[in-house]
Automatic annotation (TrEMBL):
Keyword Nucleotide-binding applies: yes
Domain annotation ABC transporter: ranges: 2-241
Quaternary organization: Homodimer. Forms a membrane-associated complex with FtsX.
SMART domains (UniProt xref): AAA (SM00382)
Pfam families per record: ABC_tran
CDD domains, per the entry: ABC_MetN_methionine_transporter
Alphabetized InterPro entries for the sequence: AAA+_ATPase, ABC_transporter-like_ATP-bd, ABC_transporter-like_CS, MetN_ABC, MetN_ABC_transporter-like, P-loop_NTPase
Official protein name in the record: ABC transporter
Span list, region Disordered: 322-347
Keywords: Amino-acid transport, ATP-binding, Cell membrane, Membrane, Nucleotide-binding, Translocase, Transport
Family the entry assigns: Belongs to the ABC transporter superfamily.
Amino acid sequence: MIELSDLRKVYPGPAGDVVALDGIDLVVERGAVHGVVGRSGAGKSTLIRCLTGLERPTSGRVVVDGTDISALPEQRLRAARRRMGMVFQHVNLLDSRTVAANVAFPLEVAGTPRAERSGRVRELLELVGLGDKAGAYPAQLSGGQRQRVGIARALATEPAVLLCDEPTSALDSATTRQTLGLIRDLRDRLGITVVIITHEMAVVREICDSVTLLEHGRVVQDGSLAEVVTDHGSRLARELIPVPDLPLGPSRALVEVTYATDEVSTHDALAAVAALGRDVEVVAGTIETLAGLRVGRLQLEVPAAHVDDVIARLTADRLHAAPTVAGDPTDRTDPADPRGATGEVAA
């Protein structure tokens, strides 16, 4: 559905070229919900702009639903964008228009006849649970309701892909869960492919089937949630299933253990740990359900001299084990990205 091949984007700057994307290879399967996370300046904003064709890549290819977006002339690019819906962090509704008129706006731009527009708007508002709000104005809605209008507007032209740029960062936790539930339900009902740019690992845990970690314009880690959380010691594994950093006694070390219940049951995982003996202690642990798969993470305090032996025994029991390492792959903003919210190159 979405395929990026050796994607590069370089901006000229007063102090030299700024490489925003540096050889990105990425595949998002049809019907998947894929998250993209990364620190400030990782290239998340540039990536989504290249996906929509708002930025032309310096080199490489952007293929969406079988169409090479990066190679289209401007007139055909505008038509291709109608196959991509966009949900923004701050929604960007038109305050002078009613809810129905906001949802109808992309259809007006596309030249859809009035009668057809009216029926499509009613259908979309019912789909997002706002059938009774057609005549309301954005100022009369809650934050969650405004985001639902934004989602309905993004779906107006029946896109194959829904691109969401920080869609829940301005919402409270309860509204965030409702919004993510709606996106997941729409994916299931309509079969659309969803890409979510987010700094919130809770969003990835809640809704994503797969995830990509960007760093300095490159893919550092990529895969299904089951793959990344069982990549022991990786930054995404630590962030998706967090456990606290703990003080250690003398001559002691921490070993991180992760497992997925489609490979090893929690009962068998704990039995394997218990078999290590009394010198090994479980000091922290958590179990999460990610993309329908239950995944566990344990922190073990072990004698420092026995770390290699403990890891070897756990690995033999089909558990993923490694010395614990600290790190934080995510951040809220992208100030080092050379393009700001308006699309202007930063000075």
